[in-house]
Amino acid sequence: MAKALGAHLDLPVYFEPVTDNVYLEDFYRDTRRYAFATQIYLLNRRFQQHQEVIWRGGGGVQDRTIYEDAVFAKTLVQQGLMEERDYDTYRQLFRHMSNFMCRPNVIVYLDLSPESSMKRIQQRSRDVESGVSMAYLEALHREYTLFIEDISRSVPVIRVCWEQFRDAEEMAAVIEREYLEGSFLRQVSWDPAR
């Protein structure tokens, strides 16, 4: 989807670090031990990517943003896989980094059921992901729902239901149309109080 949207909008595409993630295998092997290090690594990489988009100018499409990174960290804490103090440190670091970030023009949320997420994990057949549980995916989905509700107060969100997803090119056209034609300007009027 990110590739199709980038091609459709003639924007560079930035992908989540997976193949070069030096913590990923350790994270899946011993999540409790490597949760914090993995989250800090990803936060750093996503911040670097976010800044690159800004410095290059002209925008870009990211397949996962720095803003949603906290969804994973929070879920790890709730699942008892990361200590609360590590999560507090993570949140403080994110808060400090956010002073140097620009909010995106729009977030495209591909809403995917936990069952469909599990099917995609099975189709990818990455050995490191073999231990991902349905409980974790369900918790992640709940946190994503809360995240989208919260961030949509300050950043426009285009929600795409994955279960109705047909073709990446078609969806890119629909997303582009929604973004270009959608009005995110809200007007208020002021009436003097009596």
Question: Notable features of this structure?
Answer:
4 strands; 194 residues; two-stranded parallel ribbon; Rossmann fold; single chain
Q: Which helices and strands, and how do they pair?
A:
Layout: H1 2-9, E1 13-14, H2 24-29, H3 31-56, E2 61-62, H4 69-78, H5 84-98, E3 107-111, H6 114-124, H7 134-151, E4 157-161, H8 168-181
Parallel strand pairs: 1-2, 3-4
Helix pairs in contact: 1-8, 3-4, 3-5, 4-5, 4-7, 6-7
Assembly level: single chain
Give the proportion of residues in helices: 55-70%
> CATH fold name, please?
Rossmann fold
Q: State the strand order across the main sheet.
A: 1-2
CATH class: Alpha Beta
Percentage of residues in DSSP E strands: 5-15%
Largest sheet: 2 strands, parallel
Structural class, from helix and strand content?
mainly alpha
Q: Can you tell me the number of structural domains?
A: 1
Q: On the 0-100 scale, what is the average pLDDT?
A: 87
User: How does the overall form come out from the CA principal axes?
Assistant: globular
* Total helical segments: 8
CATH superfamily: P-loop containing nucleotide triphosphate hydrolases
What ranges have pLDDT less than 50 throughout 5 or more consecutive residues? none
What is the element string, with H for helices and E for strands? HEHHEHHEHHEH
Second rung of CATH, namely the architecture: 3-Layer(aba) Sandwich
Task: Report how far apart the termini are.
Answer: 53 Å
Radius of gyration: 18 Å
Total strands: 4
